[in-house]
Amino acid sequence: MAAGLLAGIAHAEDNPRLTIKDHKFQPQQIEVPAGVKFRLMVRNDDNTASEFESFELNREKVVPAGSEIPVFLGPLDRGQYPFFDDFHRDTARGVLVVK
Question: How many domains does the chain have?
Fold first, then answer.
């Protein structure tokens, strides 16, 4: 039964990418379709650890310096989901827009 339920969930064809550079997210806004599962790839180009965190998305992932991690999300309802770097809150903020 569970396999049948999962078969009805669409997956995003292109995985969005997010880069952390100079303690800022690039791009600061990412758009994804509603109702699909996807993998957000987060790359940290800084020489110190950063974090991808979102209360609305219920995610908190440390991104070591010079590395890339996947963040699995969805399916999500339409809306805006802010995210931030808890280590650099003053500069690293962004939003995931689900359409």
Answer: 1
Residue range 35-56: mean pLDDT, rounded = 97
As a dihedral over the C-alpha atoms of residue 97, residue 59, residue 42, residue 82, rounded to 10 degrees, the angle is 30
Listed residue (94, 51, 54, 99) closest to 75, CA to CA: 99
Q: What one-character DSSP code corresponds to residue 7?
A: H
pTM of this structure: 0.84
pLDDT at 2 over 50: no
**What 3-state DSSP class applies to 4?**
helix
Structural domain range at position 51 = 2-98
Measure the N-to-C terminal CA separation of the chain; round to a whole number of Å. 29
Residue 77: which CATH number? 2.60.40.420
